[in-house]
Amino acid sequence: MDKRLKNLRKTMDREVFAHLKFTENHKKSIREKIKQETHSDEEILIAMMQLLVQEKTGYQLVSLLQSRGILNFKENEGSLYVILHRLELKGILTSSWQEDGAKFYQLNQKGRRLLKKVEEQPLSNHMSFKEILEG
Amino acid sequence: MSEQRNSFLEQVKAQIKSKEAKAFVSAELHHHLNEVKSYWLQKGISDDQAEEKAVNQMGNPISIGRNLNRIHRPKVDWVTLVLFAAALFLGFLPLLSQGYMSGNHFPMYKAIFVVLGGILALGMMFIDYRKMANKGWIFYLLGTVLLLFLTRYFNTLVEGQAVLKIGPLKIEGLMAIPFFLMAWAGFFQSNRFKMWQFLLLFVLSSYFFLQFSLTTLFIHVTMTFTMIWWSKLNKKKIAIVLGSGFVLVVAWGIIGWMTVAYYQKYRVLSFLNPYNTEYLTSKFGLLGIHHLFVGAGWFGKHSFADQFIPEAHTNFVFLSFTYYYGWLFAAILILALSLVALRIMFIARNLNDTYSKLLLVGVVMVYTIQLVGNVGMIVGFFPMTNMSLPFISYGLMPVLLNAFLIGIVLSIYRRKDFLATNTLRD
Q1: Which residues of B touch A83 (CB under 8 A)?
Q2: pLDDT: is B124 or A123 the higher one?
Q3: Chain B CB contacts of A78 below 8 Å
Q4: How far away is chain B from the Cα of A13, in angstroms, using its nearest Cα?
Q5: Which span out of B10-24, B334-348, B370-384 was modeled with the highest average pLDDT?
Q6: B353/B320: higher pLDDT
Q7: Average pLDDT taken over every residue of chain B
Q8: Is A102 in Cβ contact with B420 (below 8 Å)?
């Protein structure tokens, strides 16, 4: 088994990695990933909820999150809507459509209560919070 | 729409199963792309480049679509469905108790009714009930036409009630209730619906219902008065109108009391005091029911009572059921049927949309009046009426009526998470 794995490594080195060039782009994307991981899912969610105390569209929310230094949604803005829809389904957000096709989200009473709870004890494991993150 | 944007949105949509979700997800992302694009255009780059940047910023359409699909999968309300199936199944027990199971057409007919009811409820689940919201007038018209038709073209009289009998089918005034349920829900969800319109339409429809029986009228009035409370009309106005309506009815009752014939008074009095001597002479009244009901005991008599219970498989089905199976089974039956109502109330509580809420309020009322009314008249706290026990009483039309109610619930549950899109309508 050991020998076979070593063989595999040798072949990989010879065949695959020989063709792979570590470009500046790769470096940049790795740096960005490292930078992004400084924000945990909980932190992002709390930031989102804080921003949604006032009514906002997804677009406004992305820009505000980025100005807070949360870059997880950079080049991946669509995934914000996955979280928004999940929060709406859990009954934490209410939404309304405007005539021009904009959909606004806002924290409702249940959401505000959850936010307060999470802000007071950031380290405790909130069941509902975990549920939201895991879908 | 640019080629790139189109293909992005199509890829997202391809991952999503629900038709409704496809539409609103696409609308929302479209709006987002527009905003990003106009941001880049302000920075002074070309239209094509801005478009490309906007789409690229979105990320991977497949993974977005897949995740959204997981959230917006159409839902089946298994709790209601299981309760519905259980209730329909329990409906076979009275036939068993009455010895109808052998060599009779009853079980076969009952099986057909149950299958038809199931098809109706499941079929309605796939219909988008929200399309009916602005069709209140059509339902009102249909209901009125049905009532008018029945008052003209009935061919049988059952206890003074006009009934149209076609083969085994018995069409009565009660069958107009679903139409009015849809009609009132449609009217009440509208912002433009005025109180005077309500009063006019309500008095008119109540007059038509009065041509049939007080029971049907009672169901109609209770349903409407409960639903109006969830309408967009002013609460104070509603209270004033309902209050003055109540006063009118009481006044009418007092004047009526002084003018009605003796036998009509007797009927009311015998309900209020079933043990007066005159009453004992009647053939089958409250005392007879009471006697059988108390005599059943915890585990029942296990003998057929249909020879001395009239309408043993329809209106008095709860009595014959209790007589055969006993109080314990009767309690289980009531519990199962009550759970249906509780489940619907639970769903209604978590909804924000006016129209869906109105429909569910109406559904709960129509269902509960039947349940309480039927059980109540056997147990003795409700007047004798010809109310059938939901799902248990024999007959196609009652089964279809209640299957219709369940169908509304299933349809609403399936779409309850798309309701936010509805706010555009108002």
Answers
A1: none
A2: B124
A3: 12, 29, 58-61, 64
A4: 30
A5: B334-348
A6: B353
A7: 82
A8: no
State the smallest CA–CA distance between residue B71 and chain A in angstroms.
7
B143 pLDDT more than 90: yes
User: Which chain A residues are within 8 Å of B417, Cβ to Cβ?
Assistant: 88-89
Considering CB atoms only, which of B28, B61, B424 is closest to A58? Answer: B28
Nearest Cβ partner of B64 from A59, A74, A78? A78
For residues B123 and B408, give the distance between their C-alpha atoms in angstroms, rounded to a whole number. Answer: 10
Its pTM surpasses 0.80: no
Is the confidence at residue B279, as pLDDT, over 50?
A: no
B311 or B134: which leads in pLDDT: B134
Stretch 347-406 of chain B: residues touching chain A, C-beta under 8 Å: 350, 352
What is the mean predicted confidence (pLDDT) over B98-104? Answer: 58
Query: Is B32's CB within 8 Å of A97's CB?
Result: no
Q: Is the pLDDT of residue A33 over 80?
A: no
Q: Given this model, what pLDDT does residue B424 score?
A: 41
Domain borders along chain A are 1-37, 40-134
Please state which CATH class domain A40-134 belongs to: mainly alpha
> In chain B, which residues have their Cβ closer than 8 Å to the Cβ of A109?
none
Using the beta-carbon criterion (under 8 Å), do A102 and B29 form an inter-chain contact?
no
